[in-house]
Amino acid sequence: MELLLVILIGVLYAAGIYLMFRRSMVRLLLGLILLGNGANLLIFLMGDIAKGKPPIIKAGASVFTDVYADPVPQSLILTAIVISFGLQSFAIILLKRIYLLTGSDDLDTLNTHDKDI
Amino acid sequence: MNSIILKTASSYLLPLLLMFSVFILLRGHSLSGGGFVGGLVASIAFVLHAFAHGFDKARAIFRTNPGFLIPVGLFLCFIMGAVPTFFGAPFMKGLWLEKSIPGIGHIGTALFFDIGVFIVVIGVTLTILFTISESDMEQEEV
Amino acid sequence: MIDNFIILPVLVHMFTAIIAIFFWQKVNIQRVISILGSSIGLVLSLKLFLKTQGTGILTMQAGDWQAPFGITFVSDTFSSVLVLLTGIVAISVSLFSTAAVSTNRIRYGYFAIFHFLIMGLNGAFLTGDIFNLYVWFEIVIISSFVLMTLGGRKPQMEGAIKYVAMNMLASIIFLTAIGILYGITGSLNMADLAVKVAQIENRGLVNVTGLLFFVGFGIKSAVFPLYFWLPSSYHTPPSSIAALFGGLLTKVGIYAMFRIFTLIFVPDHFMMNLFIIVAIMTLVTGALGAISKNSMRRMFSYLIVCHIGYFIAGLGLFTEIAIAGAIFYLIHDIIVKTNLFLVSGIIYKARGSTDLRRLGGFYKDYPKLSILFAIVLFSLAGIPPLSGFWPKINLFQATLTANSFILILALIFASFITLYLIAKIWLEVFWKGLPKGDIEKGDEFEDLPGEKKFVLILPVVSLAAVSIFIGFGAEYVMKISQKIAVEMIDTQPYIHAVLGDLLSK
Q1: d(CA C300, CA B97)
Q2: Distance of CA C303 to the CA centre of its chain
Q3: What count of CB pairs under 8 Å joins B to C?
Q4: Distance from CA of B132 to the nearest CA of A (A)
Q5: Which residues of B touch C2 (CB under 8 A)?
């Protein structure tokens, strides 16, 4: 399971960066979303994949003796997902505005600034 | 979308989903759930209605501008965060009533904080969705 | 000790923002609320600074969850100084915005977002938890996205897309670095991390994680070779927003870098060399970029990049003198860069352009204002006794002691180019006659009612007064900077203040 997730994280990062290098604005956004998901999965993997092992110390013991599912990374991911929800909806509306202004999805149409106003 | 099944179903689903969202909100303290998920479910109820009947109808059901919910919810959260400071506790500490009220249960600042989050999430999500749908119409006019 | 006072500078701006949203359509009420909120914020941050000076490092555990498990807020000298500077910049920009920002922008929530941005900055400076730092960063960048695109015209959108894409990428890299750091240490509290990272035997892994943090913060603070988004976006929004960005946004990246690399990842030989190389390249490329521009605001954008090099150099040398110099420079830079963009806003209002070729005759029309602007411009260049001069002595001295001659050449080059550009701006904008036939519109500044002129000029005057104070009261500021540098080199007091009894057990 860990190995599968590691490969998946690698694929998500690679695909995200590849998409970011394209000229299309939608692909840029998709790339950022994939990268964000990759980062979230990475944090998830850091908390140990342990099924049915809640982080509760057994009665009588004072420390964990077994592998347990760390709750901290899961709450971190939750926060990160909420944040990326906000960022992505902002980015979608921004792209929409740009599309309405320029009528194009190509990032190169946005390079008019060399006139040095 | 113009489907009679969806239209009929969504008018029954709207109150059901809203009730479900409140259920999720309230069970959130020690079980999975809470203000954020509850708020999302509630806004999905309106989105489903909007899919079936159009965004204008959904906005009409909502009556006020959903954007107004954002400061209300934030304000509630802020107050609930600040309440413990009057009792000499650090900001955001969860304070609970010592006795539970019969029929309602244990009440604390965390509950109202979650309700604040619930309201903010509904406000934000619906504002985002209504904004996106509005610019859709603009585009069609162009 | 329970001390809720620490997060009051954060809460005040949050409260102001919420109240401002309630008055969404009432422009004048929002203006008053914003000025009130910023003034209270300034007073509170000043009190926090004095309190930190008096009693030492203050801590507060949010929600009463003890460190290292809960979120800790820490106010040491470095944090409280930056919160104080943020307060000064906030009140100035808030005053300036009441006259400079159009009612349309205010109706779209300019002031609410402005206060959320300041809240995020204060939170980032005060937090002692690395994931919490990420959350504050996100609040800052989301607010800055909105401010950058508000009322968007095409050039603004062009700047915004680069800004948004690069900053989102930086956040993801930062998040990845946090994930890996949590994986190898199992903690998020910065003081706890400082203890745990020092014990890790696999230094390679630690260095790689440190580099990820460096890339993430490097994009945000615009160091070579990751700075290109800054000059192509900072000139597009209105001057009050650009002032806020130029003064504070890149500096929050610098703050995070200083915090992380002095507390958690104490740089080894390799990292120090890397910092110095990056500093040299940032200084040189930023200076060269600034020469090639004819628009004042583009020039200032490149100068922001160029001067980031000074901070990185201070971090790379990693001696007490160098860090004290860099911190002093940071204090000076926040005030002066904000003021520069405000000044360029007033000049734009008066002349309808920021292009040097189409400006001129400012001294003839506004002799008093010109003298005021001269103070701002020449304190950036570091003409003694104005504020930019003193920290450079420290940096040069530290560089000489470290025998890195290329760095000292780069530092001198950057200072020289800054001086040259300031002289050029002075000649072109203030002394040269106004070029004929090129003016499309009249002098909008002249036509403004008296009270509007007053609120536009007052922030410039007060920021100039602060920078004169930094120049003449250099001894005091240097003492504070040295105190910060000492706290950075010896982090035991910080760790002890946060973890307290836990360490002795």
Answers
A1: 57
A2: 13
A3: 38
A4: 7
A5: 88-90
Domain CATH for A10: 1.10.287.3510
Contacts 24+ apart (CB under 8 A), C275-278: C275/C312, C275/C313, C275/C315, C275/C316, C276/C312, C276/C313, C276/C316, C276/C317, C276/C404, C276/C407, C278/C218, C278/C223, C278/C224, C278/C312, C278/C316
Lookup: tokens for C469: 């104070």
From the list C149, C175, C232, which residue is nearest A80 (CB)?
C175
In which domain, by residue range, is B27 found?
Answer: 4-141
C60 → chain B, closest CA residue: B90
- Between CA C197 and CA C213 the distance in angstroms is 14
- C266 alpha-carbon distance from chain centroid: 23
Rounded Cα distance between C20 and C32, Å, is 10
Q: Which residues of chain B neighbour A78 with C-beta distances below 8 Å?
A: 36
Q: Is residue A61 part of a domain?
A: no
Q: Is residue A95 part of a domain?
A: yes
For chain B, the residue count is: 142
DSSP states of C141-168: HHHHHHHHHTT--HHHHHHHHHHHHHHH
Buried b (16+ CB within 10 A) or exposed e, A41-60: bbbbbbbeeeeeeeeeeeee
Whether A42 is covered by a domain: the verdict is yes
Kindly report the length of chain C. 505
Closest CA to C35 of C95, C83, C116, C84: C95
Q: Do C169 and A102 touch (CB under 8 A)?
A: no
Can you tell me whether residue C72 is helix, strand or coil? strand
Within a domain: A40: yes
pTM, full prediction = 0.93
Residue C72 has φ and ψ, to the nearest 5°, of -105, 140
Q: Report yes or no: C351 and C424 within 8 Å, Cβ to Cβ.
A: no
Q: How many helices (H) and strands (E) does chain A have?
A: 3, 0
Subunit partners of chain C (3 or more CB pairs within 8 A) = A, B
- The whole domain housing A73 covers 2-55+66-108
Asked if ipTM goes beyond 0.95, one says no
Q: How many domains does chain A have?
A: 1
DSSP state, residue C434: P
Q: Quick one: closest CA in C to A95, which residue?
A: C161
Which residues 339-358 in chain C show a CB within 8 A of chain A? Answer: 353-355
Inspect the interface and report whether the beta carbons of A35 and C172 lie closer than 8 Å: yes
Q: List, as one string, the DSSP characters of C25-65.
A: T-HHHHHHHHHHHHHHHHHHHHHHHHHHHHH--EEEEGGGP
Q: Do B132 and A100 touch (CB under 8 A)?
A: no
| Residue pLDDT tens, chain C, 505 long | 457 888 899 999 999 999 999 988 888 999 999 999 999 999 999 999 999 999 888 888 888 888 788 889 999 999 999 999 999 999 999 999 998 888 888 888 899 999 999 999 999 999 999 999 999 999 999 999 999 888 767 778 888 888 999 999 999 999 999 999 998 998 899 999 999 998 888 888 999 999 999 999 999 999 988 888 888 888 888 889 999 998 899 899 999 999 999 999 988 889 999 999 999 999 999 999 999 888 888 899 999 999 999 999 999 999 999 999 999 999 999 999 999 999 999 988 888 778 888 888 888 888 888 888 988 888 888 887 788 888 888 888 998 988 888 999 999 999 999 999 999 999 888 888 777 765 555 677 777 888 888 889 999 999 999 999 998 888 999 999 999 999 999 989 899 888 876 665 5
- Contact A49/B at CB under 8 A: no
Q: Where are the alpha helices (DSSP H) in C150-266?
A: 154-185, 190-199, 203-221, 239-244, 250-259
Total tally of structural domains belonging to chain B: 1
Q: What is the DSSP letter of C75?
A: E
- Amino acid letter for position A52: G
Which of C4, C15, C19 has its CB closest to that of B90?
C4
Is there a contact between C180 and A46 if contact means CB atoms under 8 Å apart? yes
